[in-house]
## 1
Amino acid sequence: MSGVGTGRRRGRPRGRSATRDAIAEVARRQFAGSGYDRTTMRTIAAEAGVDPALVVHFFGSKQRLFVSVLELPFDPSAVLPAVLAGDSKDAGRRLAEFVADVLDDPAQRDRFAAVVRAAASEPAAAELLRSLLAERVYPYFVEAFGGDNAELRQNLIGSFLVGLVMTRHVARLEPIASADKARLVELLAPTLQPRRRDPRTVPQAGNTGRMALGSNPLHSYVRRPGGRGLGRALSA
């Protein structure tokens, strides 16, 4: 097994900070690769080459260790302003390309997938994901997209991205799991693009106000047995 260590280390001990960092790196890798449930303080200690009591000393509990080492695989304040700046008509594509780049990098992808996977079953992880999105990601969407229901729309973008990670990299559902990067961008861009209000979506007298589905390729990417795209099925 690759990692910081494969057993008890001999010789000159590492400094306190270096030891803590080494444990954190092993924990981050194990949570990403094995998930929250299968990762234990003992497996982390074994790979880091330290006594389990030292892991407890530094982090207290598995839950606290998890929360301390798993974060978003990028710094939102460093990248999102640049991604969302510029002509709004291309914002969806820029955001889609950024997301595809993150998910195309194994280290970043595994880190994000670990948070999403754990959030599905571990309350502490779910709270971590909520706070990360609400405090560090959503404000940039609200500022960039604005308009009516900005907060609701940024929630929908967040839910879509979390669902994408779950579907593509955790559950690995086809055909989205094997779609290449270029195809993923093609599918994501229209969905992430901020839209002006379409009069077809506004309820009229004697009309239920059915939402226009437009030409979003995601609607035709999901097929029904009869060969009809999801968008066509919903419009029928």
## 2
Amino acid sequence: MDRRPLLCLGISAALGAGWLAGRVKNRRGLLIERGLMRADHSPKSVELAARAASTLAYPHVYIPLSGVLASTLKRRGVTEGNAVISSAFAAWLAYRSLKAVVHRRRPSARGTEGDDNRSYPSGHATAATAIAFTTAYLCLRRNVARPGPVIATAVAAPALIGASRVVLARHWPTDVVGGWLTGTAVAAGTIFNATSRPEIE
């Protein structure tokens, strides 16, 4: 399988995340983001749903989940299944590193003492994207699941988790976009490395 498109996607996503990091470094939300956050008065039911979605992308949840996904893939014959675990840890390292450099304040400092300047990128969006992308790619590459549900889940999960962080006023929208880009770059790099060995027929 030609992996050059995967490599190009990863590089493009990394460049996009880096460019966006430069735009928001040491800055609060852009003018349009501040207006959006002030106008957002989500119903209680939406906020509860956002909290539920957000819970899935904390490290103590997504790292064990990546192990379950990896095990499931390997049972179905996907020998590169451990790439899902690698992607989860690489995502954690990537967003922690970026947060330490960008120093962007969150839209709300509520409950974030000592961590209110680590808004970019959204760690939740980064991890969700990296894990979903890696899992979906391996499923489709090995043809172990129907493309429709796999692609729908791989798109919906990061989208909903990213949106939940904005609804909860924990991130600016550009933090979430940066997380999607960072997660895509992580997944592409992890998959490229995991599939670099020749396949044994």
## 3
Amino acid sequence: MPVTGWDHVSFPAGDPEAILDFYKRLGFATIHEEEFRSGKYPVFAIAIGENAKLNFHGPAFWQDPNFDARGPTALPGCGDFCFVFDGTIEEAVELIEKAGAKVAYGPFDQPGGADRGRRLGTSVYTRDPDGNLVEFMTYPATGRHPVWGSVPGGE
């Protein structure tokens, strides 16, 4: 297959200022923030590693009836993002809490995307200001937490 990865994914932002602040507190670098703030560009993004980004469409853009290059039912809070975290699951929990957010689910072990979905990792979840689900996954699985699916309310 000639597809080797993903470049970007886009989501509507209900509260761009809160979204920017939240992801910066988690340590993400921003892309096009100045252009977005100055009104020169309708999108801002957070960098995901060296070669990918998560775009957020500002309200003026995604609410424009003439803008239809998006998911027709996408609204703020529709995202479910999983980021590979280069650290321990305890460090991921600490990062979430230091950013002023709360752990929504986990930590628990579950299959991630590594090894074509066959590798277990350990995940912890929070929510961003728009309600998007934000997951941090560490590899390998710790083996100290229940496996996904066996946790009441687990995602």
